[in-house]
Amino acid sequence: MAQPDPEAAAKAEFAAPKTRSTTDQIILSIIQVWAGVFLAILILVFVISIPLVSGSSVSFLTVRNSQNILVAITPILLLGLGQTFVIISGGIDLSVGWVMSFASVISALALREAYNAGLALPLAVVVGFGTAVIGSGFVGFLNGVIIAKLKVPPFIVTLGMSFIVRGAALLMSENTTVIGLPRGVRDYGNESLLYFIRGEGGGFYFFTKPEISGEMLRRMDRIISYPVLVTVIVVAISIFVLRRTKFGRHTYAIGGNREAAVRAGVPVDRHIIKLYMLSAATAGIAGFLSMLRFTAGSAVIGDPLLLSSIAAVIIGGVSLFGGSGSLVGTVIGSLIIAVLTTGLVMLNVQSFWQFIVVGAVVILAVLIDQSRDMIKNKIETR
Amino acid sequence: MRKLTKLGAVAALTVALSSGAALSQEMDGITIGFLPGVVDPFYQVMELGVNAAAAELGITVITQIPPTWGVEVQTPILDAMVARGDIDYLVIAPTDKDQMVGPLQNALEAGIKIITVDTFLGDGDYADGPVTFPLSYIGSDNVEGGRISARGLAKAIGGEGKVYINSTNPNVSSVEGRAIGFNEVMDNEYPDIEVIGLDFNLDDMNTAVQQTAATLERVPDLAGVFGTNVFSAQGAGTAVVNAGLGGAVQVVAYDATKFAIEQLREGVVSLVLAQKPFDMGYLAVSFAAADAAGVTSLPVRVETGFAIIDIDNVDDPEVARFIYQVPE
After folding, report:
1. What is the pTM of this model?
2. Which residue, among A61, A70, A351, would best test binding to B if mutated, counting the most B CBs under 10 Å from its CB?
3. Does ipTM exceed 0.90?
């Protein structure tokens, strides 16, 4: 069977033209990874400035700091992940923050009930996970059906859905916070794959937390905590799906030119429904992980994260008009936001200035991204 | 959930029967409107106090709880309650000390007497302040709560060391007052304690963890954290425990929700400051009843005070009764 047009078009996005001068090639490869370069510069600035400002004993490049930042990006990244698919397809999902809260509440309730009904804790956690993914996936299904079949703009559908989901989460969480989760849940959300104890009597420990206390506990770093591990797995699968599968190619095709995609035989409506289900499901995983981490289901936990997650996607170079972008960009975008927060606190920058700096960096990042497109077009049309 | 459904049913019923109900109530006694700030455990406990006093005194209560905090949300509900025409007294937690003056003046002109709980109008001095029309203010001052939190934390860390504040938003008067009182006491009473910073997590627990973790990197000898609400404290406490500093760095949480107490037992937070919302609600309704009965000497301001809960006294019934117990 011949390759349909839109898929070829989507592939052409990545395919480099044959003839090009060396300088052009260097410029192109730099702007290709510009977000990474930006992140590296940001880290460098903090590595140099923090010891100068906060004393020579304070260092930005520590194992613990790297782990703190990784943990901090998990919710932003998971919300941004599904959002990346949706935005590439030319849509937007404004309900992810509230879906995360909703998932946090329903997974807490399910976990608690399952445990109280006599299920072992690991199984109860699995029940919580399943509830989060299925429950939020259902919300995404509703979003998708209304958008694809009833042709209501995604902006309006997902905004309306966010109110519905928020109300549902508040109704179901007794008093906005679901508490009374079994002891031990905290470990799932906060313990890690690897432990490293610095200094005397230290070393690496795998899977089980070493039996230590007092002063040694302070020297212990948790490396790759479980929420980070889950996020890494989800991110890896998503990158594969977007880059290497028909699902991914269809996503680019719909965002690039919906009409052409329809004519080429892409099942556009069904694909859009799947995309919103995916977006809601990754938000659901974020809600589930935060429930484990804070040992409570919260009907408000995801609200503040919506804008950060969209910012991460945009900083990462995904076009709000659809058709282009990558998940690696979203990962780097999330990292830039988290590195900024941690770095500015370590620099002891007054909190009001932190807002200004974060806002300025977001705008700067998008500006650079736009000029990247200009340069790229110029070189490629030469 | 059951509670909200019940509220909905009551609301529907009152609308359906409004004319008939209004008539019979006028003969039985007074009707009180209760309009707290937002749906949360603090105000739900206050509602219990309101209902308890109303049941004892044979008073009808109409309760409306705004889904979110804010003048834009509270005012339409207030106007609707005034429009009913059957409310004699309004027990309200104004969501803004200046912006709610106008809407409440309208209520006053419609013949409703106002009692403010938890939050106040103007500067809270209804005798000589800029706003004098409410009958009384019953609550616990946030600045004073900040002061008491500071003394509690200072005692827990032995009167010396570095402390840090994690707060929600810069434009919210309640948490702002708590931070002001906290700083004031640390500056004036504890020369050996240094407040090394204040960050806003914008109501995001995840950010609270990240900020506190970064602060622990910057200030490894940090002795204490003041979380200006339960979620800030929970986020800060999570960072502290994950850094292996549980017990070594003391974390104070404002408001004794059951979640805060659960975190106290888990060792994530070390001190919990309890307000007395039940007493606020109970007193407000009692004041309304007394005023209706012709009592003229009611105090214009009542401070209900605080209790400090730690792991040693959390099971003492004298202290445990201040935990915000909300029926599920």
Report:
1. 0.81
2. A351
3. no
